[in-house]
Every structure is written in C-alpha cells, then in structure tokens.
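Structure catalogue
Derive tokens from sequence
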Amino acid sequence: MHFRTRKNIIQFVRTTYNPETKKPKAIVVGTIPLGRAMIGDDLRAKLSEEEIIQAETWIKHQHHAVLLKEELEALTLADTLRLANNWFTRQGDTEAARIAAADILPALQLLRKTLNKL
C-alpha cells in the first residue's frame, strides 16, 4: 500500500501483480480529504489490518511533518521578513515586486489578526 496526495485528497493505492502481463497494477482503494485525514468505516472495511496500520502511521507522520514545518516557519519568519524587506527595497516599483506584494498582503493581514488576538 502506498499513498498519493492529489490536490485536497489522499489516495490509498494498493499495488498488485498481474501474472498475465507480468506487471504491477496500481488500484486506488479509496480516498480521504487531506484536511481531515481520518480513515472512515467504509474505507477501513476495504483495508487489511496491516494496511490500516500503514495508513495510520503514514497519516501520523504527515501530520507531524506539517506541524514541524509550521513551527520552523513561525520561528524563522522574522528573518524571512527582513530578507524580503531587503529584496523589496532593491526591487523598487517593478512588476515582480507588485506581484509578490499582492500575494503577501492578504497573508500578512491574516497573520496580524492572529497576532493581535494573542
């Protein structure tokens, strides 16, 4: 069993060997939403005990990795903002700076809201 992340879903993929073609065949057994990565009863019924353990371990690992990434980003954000400020200063009023600013401003506003609540 292996797992694929596609947009907002996680696919559970079982690979079986086809003796006629002498090639492996990947079959999607089921999917779950990425944001709520829990194995439902219907999917659980399709999986073996070993596959359930593999899936739960993979989900736990992925969740832990995301938490670590978030922590790293939060702890290094001040440095990142200083470096971004240097870049924007050098860029001046260029198209690249305007595009980057348009992406950054909504995220900064959301972060300010969160920080003000703290």
Strands lie at 2-6, 9-18, 23-33. The CA atoms of residues 47 and 99 lie 46 Å apart. The mean pLDDT is 93.
